[in-house]
């Protein structure tokens, strides 16, 4: 799925993906960049955690667990 | 440092991202010649080992904590920046082995380029080179080495390939540290940073521009920056509108742009390599199957713990019992023999008997960690944990806490949020650690009848056992909830957790962990238990002379009155003497406080002595009830069953007292070592005091409630 206008990654449905365009929160951006999440990477939401609140996400070939707040600062298209 | 001269003990730092396989490589390079201590001034565990290289003095290899970049968020990461930006420091390395996962070079080179720009002699070690054949991965090593300007060595800590070559390259670099100096930096500070740097460059103790930039960023917390300099840096930052976060993001983006083409040019992946890992995760992290699997795994773990540990434990008990008997028969009777048998041998046996369980528990936890499962558990339970004010990563501590609270508390360093970390530290000791096991084993037989259902498949005592564990977990979670309401910090909390690919564990790593943790337990806990055993022996053998004489006389008279046999007389004398001893006086002194809980003065002695280490309880009981072999649980049990209240002549160990004691031991903070670790990890006396008071209060109140309800 691709978004015509950049949207927060927290809006992506499970099983769908987008390309990271930018971040909307500087302090989270610093940390996300450090662990290898960066503009141009392919982001796919794999599944929701058992008790909600966080997601199993695949960024390029790397698996990460991100909270809703963390996903929300990633803009994808 | 670039003097071409080799120091007496060159320091080589092992640096890399978390999950890069750094520790495996460390184990391969140093074997068991490792020393575990703390980094100076901080509580981060420092692993150092000796590395022998031909024609060089012995090299000290320091395993730095895993870090993603020079912009730290956790304590572990801060330490890396602290030490690598301090050329005057003791741990400043003469060379760095930078470990990167060969399959994740596009991410793991970020920190590499940062350290490289600090002008440190480096070797890039590509770990997990065993994947080069199986996964259709190819890396153009000479080209990568040329582009990055450092020696590149592919190694595998699994099949040991490349280790010999790596040692040669390390030796070469130490002999000629200037051989690979960077020709140009990977990153040039942007306009914004240049102004600040121009002003500060001369004042800062920096080796180059990038070093100065990092000092500017991190001056507020770097320990080696003098207070006046810190002040100047702050002023300059404000004057030039230096925005640390923005500068960091700019720099990181710039760095990715500079090394990404190099990686693309030299590394080829064939297809999607982690499909197997994905398929495993479809089940393991499944919203419903995942948590069920977790619970099943934990149940299996504890089942195995009891099933497997009993044989070696019996063996150890038997050995020490026999040893004690032999010594008693061989040596002449007297105070020295008593001290040796009742104090030292009994104390030593009391320590070693826990080793099988501790080893098995660490074996399991090390495997779960190595395989990559613990990260999944953290992911699954994050939001549940958050409701209690904890972090997904707290699961790791709460699981390991069932082995021993000390390493569990140390594992909380990966939690970046201070409040979440503090709550985890405070409540982890409520999980039932292995030192509670012997106390549970002895007391449960008095609390619960030996009844089994379904052909012995489920025993009532086993259920009670599981219930105590559950009670500990529930206590931990509820206390966390209370602390969550009391404490308030606006600090941000992160999950952002890497879920590494599943891997077959490297057995050497598992073995090393088990060996080291068991050794630490024997040495650290052993010291305390030994001292207490000896002190206790002395306190229960000696007393105010007048009282002791009176006790002897009284016992003698009574024995004659009742016409007791020699053995019975000896028992009577012993018990009268105990009551008159210093320990007896102390027990009597606290008796009023513990009476509402259903305890007499003898239990009081055991409680007092086990406040330093709860595993002392069984040993104390044995000493008090004067049984030759201290740790034979069944003999102690028989003796306890015979114990009667002198006034009412009813058994002292009735179900109410037994339950009350069990509940007390579930909740009470009875471990000096844990308090010491809490003190170290929180860097204040406040939190160990809080921990001690709240746990003991819960223990006292709930034990009293249980006793009053049951009688």
UniProtKB/TrEMBL annotation, chain A:
GO terms for molecular function: transition metal ion binding. SMART domains: FeoA. The keyword Cytoplasm does not apply. It holds the Pfam family FeoA. InterPro entries: Fe-transptr_FeoA-like, FeoA, FeoA_core_dom, Transcriptional_repressor_C. This is Fe2+ transport system protein FeoA. The keyword Hydrolase does not apply. Keywords: Iron. It comes from Neolewinella xylanilytica. Residues 7-77 form the Ferrous iron transporter FeoA-like domain.
UniProtKB/TrEMBL annotation, chain B:
The chain crosses the membrane at residues 288-309, 344-368, 422-448, 468-487, 521-539, 656-677, 689-710. The keyword 4Fe-4S does not apply. It is a multi-pass membrane protein. GTP binds at residues 16-23, 41-45, 63-66, 127-130. Gene3D superfamilies: P-loop containing nucleotide triphosphate hydrolases. Its main location: membrane. GO terms for molecular function: ferrous iron transmembrane transporter activity; GTP binding; metal ion binding. Keywords: Cell membrane, GTP-binding, Ion transport, Iron, Iron transport, Magnesium, Membrane, Metal-binding, Nucleotide-binding, Transmembrane, Transmembrane helix, Transport. Probable transporter of a GTP-driven Fe(2+) uptake system. This is Ferrous iron transport protein B.
